[in-house]
Specification:
The complex is a heterodimer of chains A (about 250) and B (about 190). Chain A has about 250 residues and is mainly beta. Chain A contains two helices and 14 strands. Helices cover about 5% and strands about 25% of the residues of chain A. Chain A is globular, with a radius of gyration of 20 Å. The chains are: A mainly beta (about 250), B mainly beta (about 190).
């Protein structure tokens, strides 16, 4: 029995010993059928899910790296000729596995509304101004310590058609790959103290009260840059591996 | 000691600002010898197309290998750098998507059994608070599909929803039905 560079146990018999990723805690992820968010009604499976074991296709995944990133991708305020309107903010944090290991070299894709709550999208009809100096899209790669940082504008709230007088709390969309198909995550980062949070069916689709709080960033006076930008810290935890080491039975 | 996970949230209606990229559907460059096009529609519980969905695919290469450090079989010999393994395609107004790729090889399951060639699929859209995961299998692999340990766990009368349909030379059709009659089998990952 030998241990590979990645800490995988490789039995000498040549049998595959693959990591198994931990299941999310109940209530951690929102149910796909979430009646408060009306669009879930016709878009969730009704038949029972079938258990998919974690084998080669699941424990590997796309490793999208630096070739996807340009210099301005991590600064959404300098992608245009002029400066965008709104409150400049720094968003930073660490991407970790649930077993505490940093996830280095992983791509984070970002999209958001502008300061007025307007997305730059052809299907968006909210009568708030487009900002010619803000596209609201970014990309970053985590460093060796799993850390990331980007500069953007505090997004505004915007109305949506889910129910009468529905407004989304301010949020930034984040998409992550991790290093395995099992770790893929798309989430939204919210801001502390937003009065719309208790009213939002998407935020509240997460049933575990403590899990909800893990989507709210933390204001950081330490990381705030004097006379330039406020800072918010948002750590992201992806599924980690089960710690149990098991031996594959011999054929 | 384990940390608790960041919850999933929907991609919402505006992900196409960021997530698609022009060569996303091309797991191999257009015109690659032996390339197949897998296409289909993403359909909701009313039978209507989902025009604001995103399909992502992940798969082994034709030799059944992954250029990935967690494939314990080691580096892919003569790995084809143009083969990305990963595909991404937003759905159109009629709910259609396409992925241009090479058929993956069979894979060792790890216990002596073999997995039939397959592609893992993630489905995202507005109205989906988390992705739904399914798999594409191949219609010309009857024997391998019959012995596949994952298909074996799927109720027999629903297995056909996971097998792409022939649609002309080098074309396969794979519709994804979220709900209702012919609902695609989705997996608990």
């Amino acid at each position: 029995m030998t241990v590979s560079e990645q800490g995988l146990i490789v039995p000498d018999s040549g049998k595959l010993a693959l990591p198994e990723y931990m299941k999310p805690q109940p209530g951690n992820h929102p149910p796909l059928d979430s009646p408060g968010y009306k669009s879930t009604a016709l878009r969730h499976p009704k038949q029972p899910l079938v258990l998919l074991p974690h084998r080669l296709t699941e424990v590997t995944g796309p490793l999208l790296g630096d070739d996807r990133i340009t210099m301005t991708d991590a600064d959404l305020t300098t992608q245009k000729d002029g400066e965008p309107q709104g409150q400049r903010i720094i968003v930073f944090g660490q991407v970790r596995d649930s077993d505490g290991r940093p996830v280095p070299d992983t791509l984070i894709e970002i999209w958001q509304a502008n300061a007025a709550g307007r997305y730059l999208h052809k299907r968006e009809h909210h009568p708030a101004p487009i900002d010619p100096n803000f596209d609201g899209v970014g990309r970053v790669i985590t460093d060796q310590g799993g850390r990331y940082r980007f500069i953007t504008i505090q997004p505004g709230s915007y109305p949506w058609g889910n129910h009468y007088n529905a407004w989304r709390p301010a949020h930034i969309h984040l998409s992550l790959f991790g290093r395995a198909f099992t770790q893929r995550l798309v989430t939204q980062m919210y801001f502390p103290g937003d009065p719309l949070l208790p009213l939002d069916p998407i935020y509240n689709s997460v049933t575990d009260e403590k899990a909800k709080l893990r989507m709210i960033s933390e204001f950081s006076i330490e990381a705030t840059q004097p006379e330039w930008a406020l800072a918010y810290k948002f750590d992201i935890v992806l599924r980690g591996r089960n710690q149990t080491i098991f031996e594959e039975p011999h054929a | 000691m384990s940390e608790l996970l960041t919850p999933s949230q929907t991609v919402g209606p505006y992900f196409s600002m960021r997530l698609p990229w022009p060569e996303g559907p091309f797991v191999v460059p257009e015109g690659t010898s032996g390339a197949i096009t897998i296409y289909g529609r993403l359909i909701d519980g009313a039978g209507d197309p989902i025009p604001d969905g995103l399909i992502e695919t992940w798969q082994a290469d034709p030799a059944g290998r992954f250029a990935h450090p967690d494939d314990p079989r080691g580096p892919v010999p003569d790995g084809d750098l143009a083969f990305r393994g990963f595909g991404r395609c937003p759905t159109g107004h009629d709910g259609t998507y396409k992925i241009v790729t090479l058929k993956p090889g069979p894979l060792p399951f790890g216990d002596g059994r073999t997995e039939a060639p397959h592609i893992d699929v993630s489905v995202f859209s507005r109205g989906m608070l988390d992705r739904s995961v399914t798999r594409i299998y191949f219609p010309d692999e009857e024997a391998a599909n019959a012995a596949d340990p994952v298909l074996e766990a799927v109720p027999a009368d629903r297995r056909a929803t996971l097998i792409a349909q022939p649609a002309g030379e080098n074309y396969l059709r794979f519709d994804i039905v979220m709900q209702g009659a012919g609902e695609t089998v989705f997996f608990d990952l």
